[in-house]
Amino acid sequence: MAIKQSQIERIVALAKSYGPTRLILFGSASEMPMKARDIDLACEGIPGWKLYELAARLEEELETPLDIVPLSPPTRFTRHIETKGKVLL
Predict the structure, then answer these.
(1) Could you tell me what percentage of the chain is helix, strand and coil, using 3-state DSSP and rounding each to the nearest 5?
(2) Residue of 3, 2, 85 whose CA lies nearest to 44
């Protein structure tokens, strides 16, 4: 399965409705979109359960497995995402 540009555009459009301050695509969808089997996102600015509500809506709408992690508080993992990931917002 490949991650398509239209899916990335839909992610950004839907995420914007939740008001994030940052959104980063990472993992295989960022590094090898033609071979990716899921979508990994890191997000900042969407509080609490709203972040997971966004994830559920995206996964349902895109019909693609999706993982989402908050960027705050910063950790070694989130700092790695910030340096290696593709900034969408």
Answers:
(1) 45, 20, 35
(2) 85
Structural domain boundaries of the chain? 5-87
pLDDT in tens, 61-79: 998 899 999 999 999 999 9
**Span 5-87 CATH architecture:** 2-Layer Sandwich (3.30)
Q: What are the structure tokens assigned to 62, written together?
A: 């895109």
* pTM exceeding the 0.70 threshold for the entire prediction: yes
- Cα gap 14→1, rounded to integer Å: 22
Rounded percentage of the chain residues whose pLDDT exceeds 70: 99
